[in-house]
Amino acid sequence: MSDFNHSPSAVTDDDIGAVSPALVKYTRASIVGDLWRRPQLSGRDRGIVTLSALIAQNQTIGIQHYANRALDNGVTPGEISELITHLAFYAGWSNAFSAIVIVKDVFAQRGIGADRLPAASAALLPLDESAETLRAEHVSGLFGAAFPGMVQYTTDLLFRDLWLRPDLVPRDRSLATVSALIAAGQVAQVPHHFNRAMDHGPTQEQAAEVVTHLAFYAGWPCAFSAMPVVKEVFETRSAA
Question: What is the pLDDT of residue 5?
Fold first, then answer.
């Protein structure tokens, strides 16, 4: 895939062809020649979705190529930085650290310095107090007595801090979150976050395309496991 948008890759067509010529064919025809050209999602959105899936599954071999491709398609260095920070919470610290090792070299090769990255602390976006109060009360009612620490971290750290950091807009955080959840097979969490994603702007067509895109990068079983719960989200929203 070394000539895919001229982004360097850890594996070349020659490498793949030495083991699986058929996989070269499918990669060229289905991913390069078709999937990334489908109009339902922009190249920028596909970059966010792909990186999120790779990080969630700790698929480090693809991160160099797709971090470069994301940058080529308009995802900023600051947004990639913030994406990795966000996914530490949704895919685990170790997976985020694995991505950092690779993206650090990508940034160095492109001359991207710390001055182009988000600060450790930033002025947060405005909080929707009423919506957050309802969410916090619901979660506390379900789990507060048994898991008070988890409920407190979720409120204070995720929804009153991480989700309000300004260098990755809520729409993109939602795309990253649902992509990571689907890639990790965490379908129980998909309805809440898919609803949240669609509240932030993606259309049903775009949301459906996220699942289609992830079939190639997370595997068909992950996509098919997500499809019934995503379909239910669509139907519930249509009926509302």
Answer: 52
Q: Please tell me the distance from the alpha carbon of residue 132 to that of residue 52, in angstroms, as a whole number.
A: 25
Q: State the average pLDDT over residues 138-157.
A: 97
- Give the largest Cα separation in the chain, rounded: 58
195 token code pair:
């609803």
For tokens 């898991």, the residue is 147
3-state SS record for the chain: CCCHHHCCCCCCHHHHHCCCHHHHHHHHHHHHCCHHHCCCCCHHHHHHHHHHHHHHCCCHHHHHHHHHHHHHCCCCHHHHHHHHHHHHHHHCHHHHHHHHHHHHHHHHHCCCCHHHCCCCCCCCCCCCHHHHHHHHHHHHHHHCCCCHHHHHHHHHHHHCCHHHCCCCCHHHHHHHHHHHHHHCCCHHHHHHHHHHHHHCCCCHHHHHHHHHHHHHHHCHHHHHHHHHHHHHHHHHHHHC
Mean pLDDT value of segment 175-182? 96
- Find, among 66, 65, 45, the residue nearest to 175 by Cα: 45
pLDDT digits (tens, 9 = 90+) for 70-88: 999 999 999 999 999 999 9
Read off the tokens for 79. 């947004």
Token match 């990253």: residue? 176
In whole angstroms, give the CA distance from residue 240 to residue 24: 45
- Rounded CA gap, 45 and 73, in Å? 9
> pTM of the full predicted structure?
0.94
CB 168 within 8 A of CB 82: yes
